From TrEMBL:
The protein, known as: AB hydrolase-1 domain-containing protein
Taxonomic path: Eukaryota, Viridiplantae, Streptophyta, Embryophyta, Tracheophyta
RNA-binding keyword on record: no
Domain AB hydrolase-1 span(s) in chain numbering: 27-294
Keyword set, alphabetical order: Hydrolase
Length: 312
């Protein structure tokens, strides 16, 4: 961790934080985080790829961590993260990258690969396959208490989270998302109420890790992270051909609660996912949760390095 350096770049009217490790002349791997994550969620992978001869760069998306918030939250969308990534690469003089992404970071990663395919060597995603963009069907198929439905409702999550400090909110989300069950609140219950205060953290997530996340969300707050991803799922894009043709690897934890979302497991296991990523490999990690890259870093790092060596 001591070898990871931190810098800021001014692009598209905002100052963005980058964590980086590796020599500037090495092939570049960019890591895009999801929610409730920040650059720190890729700490194990950054060190591993740098040790294997790559240059690892992990931005905090605008509105997250140490990066500036967007000027207008109501206009903030996934497209801004795509534009920011392009601007970061141009600012740093980087021509091509491999992208590693998970969760809410997958949509901007997939958009970037579709809009700028010549700038992408390969894509590695964790958990969420590439399918056509738009509001997912599971928003209607799962009940009102489904956490995404709740968090899409303006003011609902703000009131729920506002009863607790940022560190406790992150703690509760990490516990919820590490389970195999889809987080669904009962009638009269809020999402934060699902986790009992006495519930321990996952064994692979330390108090030190929680403090790192908590401090950064104390700075950024949760308003912009709620806007992207949850309140931007109906964002539209001018994509003519939705098929990613770059080499791509999908790593899925078998115990990831997301796999239980209606239709997700079938899309992956039936091979339908290859309709939208024509050069795709899929690897499953037994016992892997939604945070498989933090839970089983050695297994994930091994898969990443084998894939990068083939395609980078």
């Amino acid at each position: 961790m001591d070898k990871i350096v931190h810098k800021f770049v001014q692009v598209n009217g905002v100052k963005l934080h980058l964590a980086e490790i590796g020599t500037e002349s090495s092939p570049v791997v960019v890591f895009l985080h999801g929610f409730p994550e920040i650059w720190y969620s890729w700490r194990h992978q950054m060190i591993a790829v740098a040790g294997a001869g790559y240059r690892a760069i992990a931005p905090d998306s605008r509105g997250y961590g140490l990066s500036d918030p967007p000027p207008e939250t109501e206009k903030f969308g996934f497209s801004d993260i795509v534009d920011d990534l392009l601007a970061i690469l141009d600012h740093l003089g980087i021509d091509k990258i491999s992208i590693i992404t998970k969760d809410a970071g997958t949509r901007p990663a997939y958009l970037f690969a579709l809009l700028h395919p010549t700038r992408v060597t390969s894509v590695i995603s964790l958990g969420i396959p590439h399918t056509p963009f738009g509001p997912p069907n599971f928003l209607k198929e799962l009940p009102e208490g489904f956490y995404i439905n709740r968090w899409r409702e303006p003011g609902r999550a703000e009131a729920d989270f506002g009863r607790l400090d940022a560190k406790t909110v992150v703690r509760n989300i990490y516990i919820l998302f590490s389970r195999t069950e889809i987080p669904i609140a009962s009638e009269g219950q809020e999402i934060m109420d699902i986790v009992e205060p006495s519930t321990p953290l996952p064994p692979w997530f330390t108090e030190e890790d929680l403090s790192a996340y908590g401090a950064l969300y104390e700075k950024s707050g949760f308003l912009n992270p709620l806007k992207v991803p949850y309140r931007s799922l109906d964002e539209e894009y001018n994509i003519v051909d939705p098929v990613i043709k770059n080499p791509m690897l999908l790593i899925v934890g078998e115990k990831d609660y997301f796999v239980k979302f209606p239709g997700v497991e079938d899309v992956i296991k039936s091979g339908m996912v290859k309709h939208f990523a024509s050069n795709l490999e899929v690897e499953w990690i037994p016992e892997g949760s939604h945070f498989v890259q933090e839970q089983f870093p050695d297994q994930v790092n091994s898969l990443i390095l084998v894939f990068l060596r083939k395609h980078c």
